[in-house]
Known about the structure:
The protein folds into four domains: 3-126, HprK N-terminal domain-like (Udp-n-acetylmuramoylalanyl-d-glutamate--2,6- Diaminopimelate Ligase, Chain: A, domain 1, 3-Layer(aba) Sandwich); 151-280, GAF domain (Beta-Lactamase); 303-457, Reverse transcriptase/Diguanylate cyclase domain (Alpha-Beta Plaits), CATH 3.30.70.270; 466-561, PucR C-terminal helix-turn-helix domain (Arc Repressor Mutant, subunit A, Orthogonal Bundle), CATH 1.10.10.2840. The protein is 49% helix and 17% strand. It has helices spanning 5-8, 62-75, 93-102, 115-149, 154-165, 193-204, 206-209, 263-299, 306-314, 345-363, 391-410, 428-446, 460-465, 469-490, 494-503, 508-515, 519-533, 540-561; strands at 3-4, 18-21, 29-30, 32-36, 49-53, 79-82, 106-108, 169-173, 178-182, 216-219, 222-227, 230-241, 244-253, 324-331, 368-372, 375-381, 414-418, 451-453. A six-stranded antiparallel β-sheet has the order 9-8-13-12-11-10. Strands 2-7-6-5-4 form a five-stranded mixed β-sheet. It has a five-stranded mixed β-sheet with strand order 15-16-14-17-18. The two termini are 61 Å apart.
Amino acid sequence: MKITVGELLQLPAMRGAELIAGQGGLDRIITSVNIMEVPEITRYIKGNELLLTTTYPIKDDIKAQRRLIIDLHREGVAALAIKPIFYGNEVPAVMVELANELNIPLIRLPDDASFNDILNPVLGEILNRQASILRRNEETHQALTAIVLAGGSLEEIAQMLATLQGCPISIHSANWQRLIFSVPLQISEHVPGSTLQAMKELALGLNENLMKMDALHAADGHYRVVRDGLTLAFRTHPVTVARETFAHLVVWLFLPDSTGYDILAMEQASTVVALEITKLRAVATVEQRFRSYFIEDIIQGKIESRSIAISRGVSYGWDLGASFIPVLLEIDEFRRFYHQPEPSPAQILRRLWNAVSVSTAVYARGCIVVDRGTRILALLRATGSVGGQDAGQIIGGMAEMINEELREQENVSVSFGVGRRIEDILGLRTALNQATAALEIGQLINGPASVTSFDDLGFYRVLFANHNRDAMNQFSQDLLRPLLESDRSHNTDFIHTLEIVLKCNGNLRAASRELFVHYNTLRYRVSRIEEMTKLDLGSFQGMLNLQIALMIQRMNRHRSAE
């Protein structure tokens, strides 16, 4: 609703005026008008002014004429309009040349122009537009207030904004998942349906497209992207509360008019959207808590009837009569967030939840997701997977998406543990124990960002299920104590050497290459290991005993780290 230099030239008061330089500055904004009557005018001017002058004070001073253009450029003046009565109706060439160079609009006024006849209409137009903006802001404020008081939804907010702005509006989650896409109730007949469809599709995958910055050109929240031969433009507005981004408002712009919308209205709407999302979060948190309590009752055996479990599940929109695969996930080394203010553990967990929600929407619609403290349990339907993919592909896709999202946001990783498929929901406790073992041992043996299935644990499953931990620990200590003590006291590397030799199935040449040591050096180390453990690494029995001892040691190391 502001007036530009280009719009100024279309006003009746500027009839007969001619733009003679500074074509590139036609989009400069004019907020006031001033008249030059003294040589040192720059001390009295402000940015975004239209300056009217005869240049009488400097009519014979070429250096002053040049300095004037430079000073106006420095002060951010919108345009200079000259009535050149002292130059035979010609503006000095030095001013024209420099105005073109600096893109300052230079306007030549006609001989019969009156400054008062220009000043009053231009100021009147500026005031009228400002009054129109105030009226529009008041209308927007009243409309938004009415929606809030009536308990309106995000759909209603988006629809109202789209109607006010005259262009489509979309609302996205903090990680750019599209929540709403609204089109104005009345769309210009000049807007083709293909453009709207392209906008909808781009909005749906905006989280992916924003990652491909080579395809987008952004400046101050403005983006342009070419899609199927169409150039689409949009402006993003973050919805923030206490420095945390809750959502994003996006205005979809019809080219070539890419600025014809009210930024203040979007800022007002951001507050209302923040309130609505806060309310939805509070409701979702309560609902999630009850869902988690219900699943916990099943795990603890407090619900003994399968029919009762299925019946209660219906109230949450769940079909617990189906078969499920339990997937347990957690952020690796989550404890490190306990002792730092930003981001807090609660913020990290919230972002994990957001990433899980998006990934399940993409890969596993209908997946049951509940809270287990710092971990999340997802019950993946064993049938009806997306796109015909099997469970392994779905879990792999989810893991890749979640880790990519959190790595980019917070440089953290997430590991997954997968239990065996259950046909009866009452068998969830056993399956959860399997997923827990897969998660914890997977983090231990496979490292961060691992996806480990219980069936892939091999002999670790036996160790995990063995309740005689004292006997296991004693077995491991008896074999490995001499090696551990030597490594501590003499800075040897026997434990690591043993791990690599066993990894290479006793092949000393392969092990020496992986350890970057000479073959004879490795043979000496192996002989020392056999001497201290009194086991033959060339025999199946000796290798098996040492492999099991190392497994027990790794499990103990993991438990002590907790």
